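Need a sequence for this fold. Nothing fancy.
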């Protein structure tokens, strides 16, 4: 009998410890679309409140274009139907010298992008703005991953210009990837899931040579804006964004 009592007590201790650990992990888990006290004191602010598209509008539009909704704490671009007009979503504000962080996940075979330093004074193609773009892609199933030069159209790339590092770690379709984009003067960095996948100096002779080999070689003023909007690209596929935050860099 004494052995059975000890066994029951041991099982109870294990159960309570596991429950406490689970509760503790839940409390420690980061909140979605909220800032920590430390983030607030270090200058971060949210660009998405988790509930509305306040602070966002369409490219060359006063209101968000069709197909952009808020769902389960995410900005979501629903899949476009054949012939349906859409368009890119941009911040109302413009930014220079900043650090941007967000999370995205893409649908199977999907394509999208995060553009920055977007100017509405440059020519547009269809509903889309032209600027630097951090590529969002299902590398495994979308054909764009095999186009361009040496992977410069894969997830994390500076689209059609610079391929991400081979150290890149891309999470599977259906899982969120973490992005960090740093713009400080002429220096720009792309980070994906905690790894810096590329960096460059815009305006340098080396970077001008890269542009000369790209689809943007004849685009007057490409990459010259020092201040601009943040843009979420409508490429017709389902894509989700959350935890969108930014801070100014001095």
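Here you go.
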């Amino acid at each position: 009998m004494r052995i059975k009592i000890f066994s029951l007590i041991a099982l109870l201790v294990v159960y309570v410890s596991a429950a406490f650990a689970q509760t503790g992990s839940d409390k420690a888990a980061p909140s979605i679309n909220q800032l920590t006290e430390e983030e607030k004191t270090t200058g971060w602010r949210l660009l998405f409140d988790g509930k509305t598209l306040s602070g966002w509008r369409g490219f060359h539009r006063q209101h968000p274009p069709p197909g952009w909704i808020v769902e389960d704490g995410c900005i979501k671009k629903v899949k476009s139907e054949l012939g349906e007009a859409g368009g890119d979503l941009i911040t109302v504000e413009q930014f220079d010298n900043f650090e941007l962080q967000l999370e995205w996940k893409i649908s199977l075979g999907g394509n999208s992008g995060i553009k920055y330093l977007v100017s509405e004074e440059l020519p547009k193609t269809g509903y889309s703005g032209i600027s630097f773009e951090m590529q969002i892609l299902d590398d495994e199933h979308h054909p764009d991953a095999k186009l361009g030069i040496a992977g410069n159209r894969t997830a994390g790339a500076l689209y059609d210009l610079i391929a991400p590092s081979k150290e890149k770690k891309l999470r599977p379709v259906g899982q969120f990837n973490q992005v960090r984009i740093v713009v400080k003067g002429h220096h720009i960095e792309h980070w994906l899931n905690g790894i810096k996948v590329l960096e460059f100096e815009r305006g340098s002779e080396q970077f001008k040579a890269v542009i000369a080999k790209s689809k943007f070689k004849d685009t007057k003023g490409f990459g010259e804006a020092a201040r601009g909007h943040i843009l979420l690209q409508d490429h017709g596929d389902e894509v989700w964004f959350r935890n969108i935050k930014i801070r100014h860099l001095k």
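For context: The chain is about 15% helix and 30% strand.
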